[in-house]
Please model this.
Amino acid sequence: MFGDSNSKIGTRELTAILMYLLGIEISDATPTILFKLGKNAGWMLPLISGLVAFTSLLFLLKLLKKFKDKSLMDIVYILTGKYVGFIIGIVLFLMLLFFTAVNSRNYVDIINSIFFIKTPTIVLYIILIGSSLFIASRGFEAIGRTSYITQPYILLVVAIFILLLWKQCRFEYLKPIFGAGIKEVIKGGVTNSSIFGEIILISVIYSQVRGYKEYRFASIVGLGFGITLLVLFSIIYMAVFDYPSAVIVNYLFPTSARLIFVGRFIGNLEAFFLVFWLVASIIRYSVYIYLGAAFLSYTLKLNNVKALLTPYAALALIIGILPENYIQAVEVARRMLLSYSWTFIYSLPIVLFILSNIRKKENKQIE
Amino acid sequence: MTTWLVFLAYCYISYYTFSYSKEVWSEGKKFASFCIMLMAFSLIVLPIAVLFYMS
Model:
């Protein structure tokens, strides 16, 4: 359906993409899940999750440096062979497909229940996925440039949002500092660490980045930004809503946007934030769609990623429409995905690193 | 009406996916082609189940 483009992206574009991928989680159900596990200390969970993600990222960077121009799927095939490599590729593809479906349904539910109550869910879903597919169809370079161009405005709006909400914050709500207890905080942080799983999955497009140095810088800065933003917003949400209200309120971002008051003449500020939030969401799902299609394409050893974009987006949409309500989509599907996928995503670079070292030793022995 | 329009769109996407799988088959990548055919098939079955039976 779409033509091909082979241009590569640089540090600025990749950093912007990762900022969107990891940073926007402040506006979906992620903080609610964190508060359910850590209670008042829900803001500490992203720190633990970030540490797990960072450790795995270090192994991945070592691998990428070693294999030079090879992307994640190439390395998987080289080190594990064609049968195991195919299974790993398909599992990663299915994981990403369900991530796309469940997360996008989360966003559609927010738009549906807060902003466009009368519009059918499927119509909103088609608009969200259709817009994301359009950006994805222009190629990864276009996604990178769109992210880079829009990034300053989104960051400015985030800063305005924090400043305006600051008056509503009561920081004594953060006590007790360790919320559900240190053990629960650490356990919750580790088991939900796949909230930053995209940092590993994005390495499937490594061959489309200019070089290793650019990729290393962008991934570390992007992950750092994602962790900082999620910690900051979790603190703000807790300081605004307190526990247990922060768990009961399902849509923390739009609800807190409604609490902003700047005077009698400027009302309904949530509509202003909605525009920027939608732009960020569309960019995020365009990356998801591209990554999913890339995973399938590289797993099947095809070179045409763009031919698989539309089927992937259509499949994600129809799976996403399956849950009847928000509770099914978020409480069951998303929490299950977060709890089970982290082991596979983060252990993969470590296992591959060990395998590459074993191969290296074997080759030396043969020589 | 919306349901039927969505279903028609899915039929077209499924047809497009199937023709791509034929293209891959002609390149000699038969297993990859089979996987894409499976995808095309699920793009017809899933919408029928979701749009007409589960909603």
Remarks:
- Helices of chain B lie at 2-26, 30-54.
- The interface with chain A takes residues 2, 6, 9-10, 13, 16-17, 20, 24, 29, 31-32, 35-36, 39-40, 42-43, 46-47, 50, 54 of chain B (CB under 8 Å).
- The mean pLDDT of chain B is 90.
- DSSP finds two helices and no strands in chain B.
